[in-house]
C-alpha cells in the first residue's frame, strides 16, 4: 500500500522534504481523496439554474427597460414641450373660440360686442367698423365713434353678422376683413406686438396688411391660416362639413388637425387655389379655381361662371339662411353666367332669379322656405 | 493548452455565445462549486447566491473572458472571491462579533476514511490521527492542503486563489507537512506507549 502511495505525485519542493514529510504528504493526499463533499441536490441545482436564467432575462428586460425609460422620458419631455407650446400658442385662439361660442347671433342686426360687454347694434345692411388709435376708438358706420379701454390684459371684441347682411371691419393694423352673412369674428381689442390673431366662424374675406414681424393668424374650428400679408377668403361655417380657404394673392400657410398633436399638417397654397378640409375624412384637398366665384360676395354679388342653378340656389340659401326648393330637378344642371346682386331681402334676389330663369317662386307658409318652379304659363 | 479537452470546448462555445454551452457549463461545474463553497461557508443560501452571481457574471462578461482559461481553476477562484466578499459584508453587519480577521476561513474537514479506503487497522488508525491533526492546522495551511490534494491545483493556481505568492504557498505546504510529520511521530509515540 505504502509503495503504491510513494509512486504517486511528486511532493512539493522535494529537495527540502524529509522522508517523513513526504510520507505525511502522501498520507494527506490519500486522506483528502476521502473528503466527504457536501452534495448539491439535483432539485436545488435545477432551482438555482432557473434562478440564473430568470435573473438574466430580467437584466435583459431591465436594460431594455432602461432604454425605453430613457426613450419614454425624452418623448415625455417632447410631449410636454409640445403641449406647453400648444397651450401657450393656442391660448388666445382658444379664448377667442370660447368668446365666439358665448356670443349669440342676433336674428336681424349686426352686432359689435366689446370687451366690457357693451353691445353696439349696426343697423345697416352693409355695415362698417373701423378701429383707430390702436383700437381705442371705433368708428361705426362712419357716423358714430365709440371709445374703449385697450390697456392691460388682452381682451376681445366680437363682430356678429346675421344672415342676409355683411360687414366690413378695419382693424388697427389696417387689415380689412369682410364678414359674410351668418358669421362671427373674434379679435383682440388691440394687437399686441408681433401678435395678430383672430377667430372666425362663418365666412370672411381678409386683406391683411403686410407685417413681416407679425404673422396674421386666422383660427377656425378645423383650420388655421397663417399669412404675412395677402388677400384670401376663409369659409368656416359651423353647419358646413368642411372649412375652405381661397387665396387671391400672395401665399398662406394652412395648418389643419391641430388637435392631433403630431398629426398637425401644414400646407402652403398659391394664388388661385382653394383648399378644402373635409371634417369627416380629415383630409385637405386643393384645387385650382376661379377665385371670383368664391370672393365676389364681399362686393355684394355672386359671381357666376357657368354655375349650375342648384349651386346658385344653394349659395343664395346659405347667404340668406333660407331653404330654397327647386320643384323640377331637371333644371338643377342648367348653368348661368354673370353676377347675381345680393340685395338685403332674399325675395328681391329670388324675384331677379325668376325673371332670368323664367321660373316662379313661392314663399311657403313657413317664411324661411321658398319654392322655385316652372311657370304654368309659358313665357 | 487543453484545447482538445471537451470541457474546454464547452468553455469556448460558451464564450462565443452558445446558450447550450452555458447550460452545459453549469451542469458540469455547479456541483464542484457547491462542494468547494461549502468548505468555506455553512450558509447554503449565501453560497447559492454566490454561485448564482458567478454565473450571472460569466454570462454578462462572457465576451471578455479569456479563451485559454483553465475553467475549473477560474471558476473556483471566482467563487472564492465572491464568498470572501459576501462574508466580509455579512461580518461587517454583525456587531456582536468584531472580526478583525479578514480572511475567509476554510471549515474543518470530515474525512470518510473507512468507507473510501480499504486499509489495515494500523494504517486506518494513522490516517484517522492524521485527519485530526490536519483539522488542527492553521486555516490557511489546511486550505492549501485541500486545494493541493483535493482539488489537484498546482502552486500557481493555489497562490492565485489564496492571493498569496507562489513561494509563500510552497512554504505553507512545507510547514504543514512538517507539522503533520511531527504530530505523526508524536502520535506514533503515543500509540507505542499505549500498546
Automatic annotation (TrEMBL), chain A:
TM segment ranges: 67-88
Domain FecR protein intervals: 163-253
Record key words, sorted: Membrane, Transmembrane, Transmembrane helix
InterPro entries, per database record: FecR, FecR_C, Ferrdict_sens_TM
Span list, region Disordered: 1-20
Keyword Transmembrane listed: yes
GO-annotated molecular function: sigma factor antagonist activity
Highest taxon of source: Bacteria
Pfam families listed in its UniProt record: FecR, FecR_C
Protein FecR C-terminal domain boundaries: 303-366
Protein's recorded name: FecR family protein
Source species: Dyadobacter jiangsuensis
TrEMBL record, chain B:
Ranges in a coiled coil: none
Boundaries of every RNA polymerase sigma factor 70 region 4 type domain copy: 130-180
Record has Transcription regulation as a keyword: yes
Single Gene Ontology BP annotation: DNA-templated transcription initiation
Pfam families: Sigma70_r4_2
GO MF, one example: DNA binding
Keywords: Sigma factor, Transcription, Transcription regulation
TM stretches of this protein: none
NCBIfam families (UniProt xref): sigma70-ECF
Family per similarity comment: Belongs to the sigma-70 factor family. ECF subfamily.
Official protein name in the record: RNA polymerase sigma factor (Sigma-70 family)
Species for this entry: Dyadobacter jiangsuensis
